[in-house]
Structures are given as structure tokens and as C-alpha cells.
Design brief:
Sodium/glucose cotransporter; 18 helices; mainly alpha; 499 residues
Length: 499
């Protein structure tokens, strides 16, 4: 335990040192919310990857594979495809658009500028959706952190939730966006190391690895088993749709220093992501083989923690535990910051509250604490599973914002009323589907992942309402055409359009 305390103390010291340095570099609200658009390709890449993967990469996904087997492969496949398409088609255009329509710092402010300033309903609706689903998402992170502190310190669940939350909120509120991204670079590297070393070490500890197929059910090693329906496969692949609507990932694209570095960032992020997903998958498989003859009495989502604790010397195990904390912190910090900016930039804008730059920074820090307290209420149930909570929040953001992001970037005719309709229908359909599945868990229809009906119906609502609405104003169309032209200029860096 002394070794664990020493290693974790060093880890906490590094994180807080980064947070303090970032706080000193944070001069105004633009720095706090978007880092002054100063990120390098490498920090952008690992920031996007680390904030995306969360604690479910080291806990939720290995736990699902540990129980179900290779039929969970469709989830990382869907995620990889979705992430690549997001980087390939959305990243550059969103970066150019957000700076050229009034230097939008958040996704709600981008929508407001893209569809014409003054649409207060659109901006408020966007902020409300972010607050609802990000609070749920942050709750999943608090559950992950509680699992970690339970295993490490043998604490009661609710005490563990409070410990993790206090640390997470402290460094996020102090340093803002720069702290989150600099720490994510460090934490993404740590997660990468953990997901490489753990399955390799587990495999070397297996006594009869040649006969492992005899220790587990035959369907465990089939990507399409009798227990895997077409709806299950489609649902797992559909996770990839969520990428187009995740503000905590999209803001990383907005913050890169030069759009010409986007290709390098994409290659770094996708390499990191694919290898990390394969590593998480390998943790679940090797863990299932390892415990097949030994038995286990722990929650399935704690397989990574149990392997780390049981197979490694104390100092390496402590580093692996720190990697789990890194995964949890990176995503919660990004989501808390996005929720904070929604309150500071968007709800304050809706109610016409005038704040100075310094006041906005302090208001944002208070918003981080407020959202965290609400998220802890959702995390208070020790029976919550990380993957299910993340799945609901991911679907809500993806269905509400994904169609609006795509159509706003690639359809000139898209209007503000169409965006509001799409956002509303997407969010409501996800909530209806979650409720339907809870009431009729055996229903074939409601077993379909909720992002699919939400995304499809939101897209239809957006198109129908936009076509029935008036054409966007000339200034909106002018900005769209100028951004489209700049996207085809290889030497364009991201300078604002000259009116």
C-alpha cells in the first residue's frame, strides 16, 4: 500500500502541476474554454482520443468482452469507423467554420453563428441538451473512479465517489481547457502503456494457453454466435454514429493551431485509438481465459483492476491503476468543461447576462462544481454499469447533435428551425427508447440501440422543416460558400474570412 500511495502521489503531483501551469497561461475566457486555439497536432490527437475513450476503455469494454467474448468486436469496429469519418470529413471544416463565423468558442455558439445570430431558442436548446447528457456522462466517470478507489483503498462505494469527484473537479476548475488537454496528452500515453502491457503479462501467466478453447464456451470465440442477433451487431456498429455529435471531441478540432496539421493529428489519434481498443479487447479475452479455471468473485467491469493487482509488482500495478484514473479524468474533465462553457457562454447569453472576461472564468469554475454535484447524484447507485450509462449519454449527444453538425457543414439549405427540430426529435427519441427498453426489456424493437432511431428521425425532421422554411439569409449563405472555398485551399491556415 505504501508503494501505491507513493506512485499515486507522484501522479497527482504531475497532474496538479500541469493544472497550475495551465491556470497561469489562462488569461481570458477564450483560453479557459478553447485554449486560445493553440493546440499542436499531437496534443489535439491524444486529447481527442483520451477524452473520447474514458474509463469504459479500461473497465467497461474489457468487462463486456470478459463476459460475452468476441461478439463484442463489432463495438470497436463501429467506433473506429465513426472516429475516422469524423476526423476525415468534419474536423477541418468545423475548425475553419467556427473561427470564421465570429470566433465561436463552443458548439452552441457555432450553431448560433452558423444559422444567424439572435436565435436564442437554438442556443438554449443546445445548452440544455449538453447539460442533460453530459451530466449523465460525467456520472459514468464517477462510477469508474469509485470502482478504482474501492479496489485500491477498500472504501465504501459512496465515499469512493466523493474522493474521485473532489480530485477531478479541482484540477478541471483550476486549469480549464489548457489543463485538460495537456493532462490528456500525459494520460493518453499512460493509458496506451497500460493497454499494451496488461494483456501481454496475463498471457504469459497462463499455464495451459494451448488448451484455452476447452476452458470457455465455444460461442465465446465467435464474432457471430447463436447469442448474437443482427440487431445486436447493428447496435454495436451504430456506436460510431455518436462521434459526429460529441461536443467534448468536436471542440478539440476547433482548438488546433493550424488546420494544415489536421491530417497529422488524425493519423496519430487513429493509431492510438485502434491499438488501445485492441488492447482493451485483449484484456477481456486474456482475463476470461485466466479466470476460467481459477474462478472469480469480482464485478466483471473490474477485470482490468484485478489483473493489475494480481499479476504485477506493486509499483507497476500502481501505474496501471493511475492509468484507469487517467482514463476517467480525461473524459470527465472534458465533459465538465463543455457543460461549464454551455452555462457560461450560452445560458448567460440567452438571459442577456453581461459578464467580464475574468467573471466568465470564475463563473465557469462554479459551473464545473454545480454540474459535478448533479452527476454525483446519478452515480450514487452502486449497481450502475459503466457501459450502459456511457451508452445512453453517447446516444443522446450523437442523435441530438450529430445530424445538426453534419447538415450544417454539408448542406447549404439547412436552417435554424430545421436544426432545432432535429435536435429536439433526436434527444426525445433517445429518452423514449431508453424508457421503452426499461419497461419492456425483452422487446425486439427496444433492444435496438437508441442512437439509431434517434439519428434517423432527427435527420428526417431537420430536412423536412428546413425545406418548408425560408432560405437562409445572404450572409449565412456567403459564409457557407467562403468556408467551402477555403476547405479546398491546401495552404489555408484558418485565418478569418475578410468581409
Amino acid at each position: 500500500m505504501i508503494t501505491f500511495f507513493i506512485v499515486l502521489a507522484i501522479y497527482f503531483a504531475i497532474v496538479f502541476a500541469i493544472g497550475i501551469c495551465a491556470a497561469r497561461a489562462t488569461k481570458n475566457n477564450s483560453d479557459y474554454v478553447l485554449g486560445g486555439r493553440s493546440l499542436s497536432p499531437a496534443i489535439t490527437a491524444l486529447g481527442a482520443g483520451a477524452s473520447d475513450m474514458s474509463g469504459w476503455l479500461l473497465l467497461g469494454l474489457p468487462g463486456a468482452v470478459f463476459v460475452s467474448g468476441l461478439d463484442q468486436l463489432w463495438l470497436p469496429v463501429g467506433l473506429s469507423i465513426g472516429a475516422y469519418l469524423n476526423w476525415r470529413f468534419v474536423a477541418k471544416k468545423l475548425r475553419i467554420y467556427t473561427e470564421n463565423v465570429g470566433d465561436a468558442l463552443t458548439i452552441p455558439s457555432y450553431f448560433d453563428a452558423r444559422f444567424g445570430h439572435g436565435n436564442r431558442v437554438l442556443r438554449l436548446m443546445t445548452a440544455v441538451v449538453i447539460l442533460i447528457f453530459f451530466t449523465l456522462y460525467a456520472a459514468a466517470g464517477f462510477v469508474s473512479g469509485a470502482y478504482l478507489f474501492q479496489v485500491l483503498f477498500h472504501l465504501p462505494y459512496h465515499t469512493a465517489v466523493w474522493m474521485g469527484a473532489i480530485f477531478l473537479v479541482a484540477y478541471t476548475s483550476i486549469g480549464g481547457f489548457l489543463a485538460v488537454n495537456w493532462v490528456d496528452f500525459f494520460q493518453g500515453s499512460l493509458m496506451f502503456f497500460a493497454l499494451l502491457i496488461t494483456p501481454l503479462a496475463t498471457w504469459f501467466h497462463l499455464e495451459h494457453s494451448a488448451d484455452f478453447t476447452l476452458q470457455l464456451p465455444a460461442h465465446y470465440f465467435s464474432v457471430v454466435s447463436n447469442q448474437t442477433s443482427l440487431i445486436a451487431i447493428v447496435s454495436l456498429l451504430a456506436w460510431g454514429l455518436g462521434y459526429f455529435g460529441q461536443p467534448h471531441i468536436l471542440v478539440r478540432f476547433m482548438a488546433i493551431r493550424d488546420v494544415r496539421g489536421m491530417k497529422v493529428a488524425r493519423r496519430i489519434c487513429m493509431s492510438w485509438m485502434v491499438i488501445s481498443l485492441l488492447g482493451a479487447f485483449a484484456v477481456g479475452i486474456t482475463g476470461a481465459i485466466y479466470y476460467a479455471t481459477r474462478g472469480h468473485q469480482f464485478d466483471n467491469e473490474m477485470v482490468f483492476l484485478e489483473l493489475a493487482k494480481g499479476l504485477f509488482p506493486a509499483w507497476i500495478a500502481a501505474i496501471l491503476f493511475a492509468a484507469v484514473l487517467s482514463a476517467v479524468m480525461s473524459t470527465i474533465a472534458a465533459q465538465l468543461l463543455a457543460s461549464s462553457s454551455a452555462l457560461t457562454e450560452d445560458i448567460a447569453h440567452f438571459f442577456e447576462i453581461q459578464l467580464s472576461e475574468k467573471a466568465k472564468v470564475w463563473f465557469g469554475r462554479g459551473a464545473v462544481i454545480a454540474v459535478s454535484l448533479v452527476a454525483m447524484i446519478f452515480a450514487s447507485d452502486p449497481q450502475s454499469t459503466i457501459l450502459s450509462i456511457v451508452g445512453h449519454a453517447w446516444a443522446g449527444m450523437g442523435a441530438a447533435f450529430g445530424p445538426v453538425i453534419l447538415f450544417s457543414l454539408f448542406w447549404r439549405r439547412c436552417t435554424a428551425r430545421g436544426a432545432v427540430a432535429g435536435m429536439t426529435v433526436g434527444a426525445i427519441m433517445v429518452l423514449v427508447w431508453i424508457f421503452g427498453h426499461s419497461q419492456w426489456p425483452q422487446s425486439v424493437i427496444f433492444s435496438l440501440y437508441e442512437i439509431i432511431p434517434g439519428f434517423i428521425l432527427a435527420s428526417l425532421a431537420l430536412v423536412v422543416v428546413s425545406l418548408r422554411d425560408e432560405m437562409p439569409c445572404k450572409q449565412t449563405l456567403h459564409h457557407y460558400d467562403e468556408v467551402l472555398r477555403h476547405c479546398h485551399e491546401p495552404d489555408y491556415t484558418g485565418a478569418p474570412i475578410q468581409e
